[in-house]
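Possible regression after last week's pipeline update?

I re-ran a chain I had predicted before the update to compare outputs. Posting the input and the new output here so someone can diff against the archived version. Not blocking, just want to make sure nothing changed silently.
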Amino acid sequence: MKLLKVVAATMTAVMLTTSCGVLGLGSSKKSKGVGLGAAILALYAGYKLAGKIDLGNLGNIVNLASIINILRGNALEGDNTDLIAGLIEGSQNTITPSNAQAIVGLLDQMSKIDLGKVTTTAKTLTNNATQEATQAAAASLASSPEVQSALNTLTSIFRLMN
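New output (post-update):
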């Protein structure tokens, strides 16, 4: 029950901070940073509880899709001062000024991975969020080398946040 409350709270936070809905894109570098920070924080909270990024959890799939969509919006191009400020704010200071630049570097690596499968899955599941559909999607995503690469990158980010 506690895990369900954490997932619900983090999904709500991500939806509110990405300004255009659960898979939306903010218009400014700072709003994109806030969205990234909130989604990373939500994934990190689940990671700390489960010891892994559980793709059987719809909230984790949605948060991963949020990160992907924000990165697709060229969030990392140019000066990242405002993006970093947003990352710190969105992560509720879990991302700090001392680790933010390294995290941006890892996000840049992640932005080069083709993760369209995740966003498609998230859109489908938000319309049909049954346990069976989520489990089937988790199995499909877990077998994708691109998704595994993204999860490894996120795990590296989490290590910086400890």
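Follow-up from reviewer: compared with the archived run. The helical segments are 2-17, 29-50, 58-72, 81-90, 97-111, 116-127, 131-142, 145-161. Marking as no regression found.
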